[in-house]
Amino acid sequence: MASLSSRQSTPNSVQLGRIRVLKEGFRGSDQAVGPVVYWMFRDQRVRDNWALIHAVDQANKANVPVAVAFNLFDQFLGAKARQLGFMLRGLRQLQISIEETLQIPFFLFQGEAEENIANFLRECGASLLVTDFSPLRQIRRCKDELCKRVSDSVTIHEVDAHNVVPIWVASEKLEHAARTIRGKINKLLSEYLTDFPTLQPPLRKWGATNQTIDWDSLIADVLRKGAEVPEIKWCEPGEAAAMEVLMGSKDGFLTKRLKNYSTDRNNPLKPRALSCLSPYLHFGQISAQRCALEARKIRNVHPQAVDAFLEELIVRRELADNFCFYQLHYDSLKGAWEWARKTLTDHASDKRELIYSKEQLEKAQTHDPLWNASQLEMVHFGKMHGFMRMYWAKKILEWTKGPDEALAISIYLNDKYEIDGRDPNGYVGCMWSICGVHDQGWQERLIFGKIRYMNYAGCKRKFDVEGYVAYIKRLVGEIKKRKAVNDLGRNPKEICS
Fold first, then answer.
1. Domain for residue 175, yes or no?
2. Residue range of the domain that includes 421
3. What does the pLDDT average to over 83-111?
4. Which residue, among 384, 463, 367, 453, has the nearest Cα to 421 in the 3D structure?
5. What is the mean pLDDT of residues 401-427?
6. Share in percent of the chain as helix, strand, coil (round to 5)
7. What CATH number has the domain bearing residue 71?
8. Which parts of 347-464 fold into alpha helices (H)?
9. Total number of domains in the chain
């Protein structure tokens, strides 16, 4: 598998370096060219989507129609109502948008993607499948299997529509830290951080379809099955909502809140200093490239804030993708650097003053009010402040039987409750905190070995700890009160369903 030989492209198409050929199809001279199908997974948007742009471009060049297919997995890494409800509500808006503005049909499948997508390609006689890029093992294995199942005449292209600089172009190896990848990415930004071409409806239209999607039933089903982790109210799903958070005239990040980003983003008591874009970036409801382009336009007004934002948006995000792409064991101790594995193994049997079970941690039943507050913020709000996520994960290492258990628990809780769980940023965040990934060795101590240490006293020096605990108590109280009011407004049959 390799990217196409040249990175140049025509003005209305995708840079060839952004495309990898997963499978080269072979078509006989007497064999008609079939339609193009875009299997959408990670980048769930119509606007600013390089994979969709490529699919339409290829369809127009071959004078064939194009369709979008999405596969809803029965179970994907423990996602609950919170994550699946957000995703499905966004996809419902996407279907309307893509069918009305571009006349491209949207097909939804449920179950095993390698079977569903292969069957759909066969039924419609497709000649090209375009997919977007994900570094996660499960999706890569699915694509490998799909390559085996489809006809020899089908070509499969993978387009990195998620990163500003395509992951395989930015670096051909596992990077050790932000400092080792930053220069490589920055050198390529002039080539890849460009505006998007205007996407026009495809020249050939797909034939009439009889398929309808019962979104209400689908959403009700995931809400019922995943009711243990209910939806959140502070974050409205969809492309339009994402652009409002980025550019809105009332409370947009770049229009109203950016100026405090560089000074306040590490203060858990000032959550509005953050962009609040992570759910949209995770589900691909907004393009990181669009965010970067808009931020760059106002750099002369807030240079420090924009530079800090672009560092997080591009360098740090793409470093996380690099880790998960080149390190198969991105969520286990096997994926740590050798020095970290050794120091954690050497100290695995160190005596812990306190040990909490997974259940105690999940219920925020520890002696530490600061840690409990961060856990409750994640459980009820669906998002924990970035600074607190570091403290939170490091304390799990301190309070469990060993590093393997600590990492497994932190990933379990993160993926279950965070609206942006099951993401390279989440895996790397846990690996940084517990396994020292993208970090260096520090002074050796019990339990942590040479892994960076954080404690309560250090947090007190950084911000008003008691103020944060009180803030979370109020926040959780308000969420519980709203839920109780909503439950009272529904009939018993609805509550039990």
1. no
2. 333-478
3. 97
4. 384
5. 97
6. 55, 5, 40
7. 3.40.50.620
8. 358-362, 369-381, 386-399, 403-417, 424-435, 456-462
9. 2
CA 428/CA 320 separation, integer angstroms: 6
Q: Return the CATH number at 473.
A: 1.10.579.10
Asked whether residue 406 is assigned to any structural domain, the reply reads: yes
Q: Mean pLDDT across the chain, nearest whole number? A: 94
| Helix/strand/coil (H/E/C) assignment for every residue in 211-264 | CCCCHHHHHHHHHHHCCCCCCCCCCCCCHHHHHHHHHCCCCCHHHHHHHHHHHH
User: Which token pair is 371?
Assistant: 């840690």
Distance CA 174, CA 179 (A): 13
Candidate from 42-46, 405-409, 431-435, 479-483 with smallest mean pLDDT? 479-483
- In DSSP terms, 110 is beta-bridged to 72
Q: Indicate whether 317 pLDDT > 70.
A: yes
What are 141's two structure tokens? 């294995």
Q: Are 64 and 34 in contact, with CB atoms under 8 Å apart?
A: yes
The share of the chain scoring above pLDDT 70, in percent, equals 95
CA distances from 18 to 9, 159, 192, 239 (A): 10, 6, 9, 23
Report pLDDT digits (tens) over 18-51.
999 999 999 877 788 999 999 999 999 999 999 9
In this prediction, residue 141 has a pLDDT band, given cuts at 50, 70 and 90, of very high
Please, what is the end-to-end C-alpha distance for the chain in angstroms?
Answer: 47
Percent of the chain's residues with pLDDT above 90:
90
Q: Which two tokens stand for residue 4?
A: 């196409």
Domain boundary residue, one of 169, 193, 210: 169
Q: What are the distances in angstroms from CA 324 to CA 96, 160, 173? A: 33, 14, 11
Q: Is residue 8 part of a domain?
A: yes
10 lies in some domain: yes
Give the rounded distance of the alpha carbon of 258 from its chain centre.
22
User: Which residue in the block uniquely carries the two structure tokens 């769980």?
Assistant: 421
pLDDT mean over 383-397: 97
